[in-house]
Structure formats: structure tokens, C-alpha cells
Write a structure and sequence with these properties.
This is Methanol dehydrogenase regulatory protein. GO terms for molecular function: ATP binding; ATP hydrolysis activity. Keywords: ATP-binding, Nucleotide-binding. It holds the Pfam family AAA_3. The chain is an alpha/beta fold and 329 residues long. It is 43% helix and 16% strand. Strands 3-6-9-1-10 form a five-stranded parallel sheet. A two-stranded parallel ribbon has the order 2-11.
Length: 329
């Protein structure tokens, strides 16, 4: 297999081969730091890491009490960079998130809101109304905020980790499709099994401290380098066609009212590169694409009303689509 040029300058110490082992080692340190406190939820942790490498945003969906917020905080603090938490509530206004102009000494001065950080935890994102949700569109997609005719770029790296309770919970709103489409992954979280529940009691039941101690495993500069190297992981032409075929097939599937957008194709492409680098490879294989496809599309498709009434899940439809397409050899 041919080697890929490093996106860094030509004088870098790695020559012309990607340092995927260095990325994998750094990511494993992050994983182990989180696992000191969190029991189970291995898939959630891996997908959050993939989101970081892919420059994507993550939506965590599950009932209260299953460590969505705690895991997000530990993940953010395992990276030595800026961190901000925003609690979404029904009375939250866009200015509370983005910032506002303040009159000071005869001039208006823009006071930045809590969104101006590196890793942003938005807790219970679906408790805020549509007006506040719309304020997130520009910053999530374009990584900038426009206020009073001025554009303020976000510091890099920039990532949104959002938690939400199921939409049938009291006091929740359904997120707009345009906002859902801006999340790389939607991660469903299940309740722990018996063995995991026992471990949680053993590990956390006698704790007196509310805040677990987290040691940053990688720096913000490490993250930027990892993202650059991930973005040039090789994806062969036949695998690009495989991604496109999966996504296009959702657009004319009889069980779906609306299929996935082109953002879904890009999400699967970038996430499959991240899965490859985590495994220590500088090339993508079909299994990487299959692992990325469902979490990247489950929030981007809409079931027909008949299928919803039958209790069919988006994941089940997507699994059928993936299985119906021949795997490239």
C-alpha cells in the first residue's frame, strides 16, 4: 500500500508516514483516564473519541442517571484545553449562550458568552425552545459567531457535547432537523447490566468526593495534530462508493419518509478515518464504515408514520440497508 504524505511541514520527524501509533497511544490515555471513573459505556467513549478526531459534535441520548453528563465532563477534562458547561433551560435566551453587546465608555463592546471555549458541554439541550436552538446553527457548522455585523471565530479545537433526555420526558422539545444534522453522531445510551451495576456500587458507593480527579492525558495542540493526521487517512475509491451507496439508498427506502443528507456521507467518511487511526491503521477498511454508519445516520433519517406505529426503529432500518449492500473487496 502506498504511503500518505504527512499534513505537517516536510521537515517533520515522522518522514512521509502518518504517526498513527502516536495517535492511538494518545487516545488510549484519554480512554483509560475516563475508565477510572466510568463503568461500561465503552461504545459511548469510543464514539466521543471518534468525534474529537473527526472535528464533529456529539449528541448523547438517554434517560437521566446513566452518566451522560459525568462522562462528558471527564472526557472534556482529559484534554488540556478550554472547557465550558451550559445548562439549557426553558427560559434560556440566545444571548445567554453566544454573548451580548454591552455599552461601555461610549462604545458597544461584545461580551463573549460561554460558547467561546474549546470543548462545550450542553446539558439537557432539548429543554430549551427553538429560538435558543437556532442560535447554535452557525457556531456548530461554521465555527463562528456573527453578532452586530462582526464575525468572531471559535478557538480550535472546538467541539460540542450535548446531552438530551428522551423526547417523551416532561419539559422537553424536539430538536430541529437542521440542528440534528449538525451532529456527527447521535449516541443511544442503555442502562447498565447487573455486573456493571454492581461495579458502580463498589467503585462509587462509598465515595465522599463529588468530583472525580481527572488528569489531562493530551494537550489541545495534540488534538489539532491528531485531527490533521486523521483527515488524510487513505480511503480507497471503492470505499467512497460504498459510503455513497449506503447514504443514497436511505433516500428512496420505502420505510423512510426522509433519507440522510450529504452531511451524513461526510460524517461517515470522516468517522471511518478516525476509527482506522484508533486501530493504528493509515487506511480505512469496510468495517470502519459499518461502525460509523448507524450512529452517523440514525438522527438524520425520518421513519414513515406507519413504521413508527409498528415500533420499527431507525437503527433496524439502517441495519437492513447496510446488510443489503455488497461489501467492497
Amino acid at each position: 500500500m502506498e504511503e500518505i504524505s504527512n499534513p505537517q511541514d516536510s521537515g517533520n520527524p515522522f518522514g512521509n508516514r502518518l504517526p498513527v501509533e502516536q495517535v492511538a497511544q494518545g487516545i488510549e490515555k484519554v480512554r483509560q483516564e475516563i475508565k477510572k471513573t466510568i463503568v461500561g459505556q465503552d461504545e459511548m467513549i469510543e464514539l466521543m473519541i471518534v468525534g474529537l478526531l473527526s472535528k464533529g459534535h456529539i449528541l448523547l441520548d438517554g434517560v437521566p442517571g446513566i452518566a451522560k453528563t459525568l462522562t462528558s465532563k471527564l472526557f472534556a477534562k482529559s484534554v488540556n484545553t478550554g472547557y465550558s458547561r451550559i445548562q439549557f433551560t426553558p427560559d434560556l435566551m440566545p444571548a445567554d449562550v453566544l454573548g451580548t453587546s454591552v455599552f461601555n465608555s461610549g462604545n458597544f463592546e461584545f461580551k463573549k458568552g460561554p460558547i467561546f471555549s474549546n470543548i462545550i458541554l450542553i446539558d439537557e439541550i432539548n429543554r430549551a425552545p427553538a429560538k435558543t436552538q437556532s442560535a447554535m446553527f452557525e457556531v456548530m457548522e461554521e465555527r463562528q459567531v456573527t453578532m452586530d455585523g462582526h464575525t468572531y471565530p471559535m478557538a480550535q479545537p472546538f467541539m460540542v457535547l450535548a446531552t438530551q433526555n428522551p423526547i417523551d420526558s416532561e419539559g422537553t422539545y424536539r430538536l430541529p432537523e437542521a440542528q440534528l444534522d449538525r451532529f456527527l453522531f447521535k449516541i443511544h445510551l442503555d442502562l447498565p447490566n447487573l455486573e456493571e451495576e454492581i461495579l458502580i456500587l463498589k467503585n462509587r458507593g462509598s465515595e465522599t468526593e463529588n468530583e472525580p480527579n481527572v488528569v489531562p492525558a493530551i494537550s489541545g495542540e495534540d488534538v489539532l495534530n491528531f485531527q490533521k493526521w486523521t483527515s488524510v487517512i487513505r480511503v480507497e475509491e471503492k470505499l467512497i462508493q460504498y459510503i455513497a451507496t449506503i447514504v443514497v439508498k436511505t433516500r428512496n427506502h420505502p420505510s423512510l419518509y426522509a433519507g440522510a443528507s450529504p452531511r451524513a456521507s461526510l460524517a461517515i467518511f470522516r468517522a471511518s478515518q478516525a476509527f482506522a487511526v484508533i486501530e493504528g491503521r493509515d487506511f480505512v477498511i469496510p468495517e470502519d464504515i459499518k461502525r460509523a454508519a448507524i450512529p452517523a445516520m440514525r438522527h438524520r433519517i425520518i421513519l414513515n408514520p406507519e413504521k413508527e406505529m409498528e415500533g420499527i426503529s431507525p437503527d433496524l432500518v439502517l441495519e437492513g440497508i447496510i446488510q443489503s449492500i455488497e461489501i467492497p473487496r
